């Protein structure tokens, strides 16, 4: 191969997911690296069936863990693919990547945007503007990093990117209980971040964040739309967001499972973020 690929996967007690993730990634001609943050189940034993490149590092937050891996692992590939344990490399994506890396890549291209195919309660969520959603999971080593945000982090690539038409499957939950617990945690992080942004007069990220641009790449357009969403008043915007996703963008076509997903993710989660922002603002006024 003219180009070489490394895969980085983060784990913590992922025995339910990591086997399927690694099996899907094994089709790629790549070196696989695991960064574990103290698993106490059989995660590491499963990982060692596929790779001996297993490393341990304390978890601070997602972005810090990603960037630690990029900066400290003994990577040898010219390209890096970042996966989570609940990701699955589709056969179509594996075939496309093996073909891409079998020959030299344009020197001006430093990253590839890959779409996410969300699997919720066993169903692919195709509508409501949720598919395709692109992430820069794959980039030339040394030309990408993870945004230093507590939630909704993207990989930022320096230089030109290309959009792939094949997918990564994202199995976002094993149960509604897990889904609600995780999103409650993420709502707290997002509320804290947004309140901090409101209280910061001057923001200079030194080019480390994905900038919102209406006519940019798919990630930049999505960030632009999120900024527009954040301009609406608290508690009003979740209603608008759900209405647009479920009715205008045809989320109802995802059936009963889609109703559960779009309501929880598109309304309840967004409303919870606003409620936590409201709570933080009230506490700040008291102080």
Q: Can you walk through the features of this model?
A:
This protein has 287 residues and is an alpha/beta fold. Helix content is 40%, strand content 23%. It has eight helices and eleven strands. The strands form two sheets. Strands 1, 2, 3, 4, 5, 6, 7, 8 and 11 form a nine-stranded mixed sheet that branches. Strands 9-10 form a two-stranded antiparallel ribbon. Strand 9 (144-146) and strand 10 (155-157) form a beta hairpin. The mean pLDDT is 95.
Q: Descriptors for this entry?
A:
single chain, 287 residues, alpha/beta, two-stranded antiparallel sheet, 11 strands, globular
How many individual β-strands?
A: 11
Strand percentage, roughly? 15-25%
- Classify the helix fraction into a percent range: 40-55%
Which structural category do the helix and sheet elements fall into? Answer: alpha/beta
Rg over CA atoms: 19 Å
Largest sheet: 9 strands, mixed
> Could you name the ranges where pLDDT drops below 50 across 5 or more consecutive residues?
none
Number of helices: 8
State the shape: globular
- What value does the average pLDDT take? 95
Q: How many angstroms separate the termini?
A: 61 Å
Element order: H for helix, E for strand: EHEHEHEEHEEEEEEHHHH
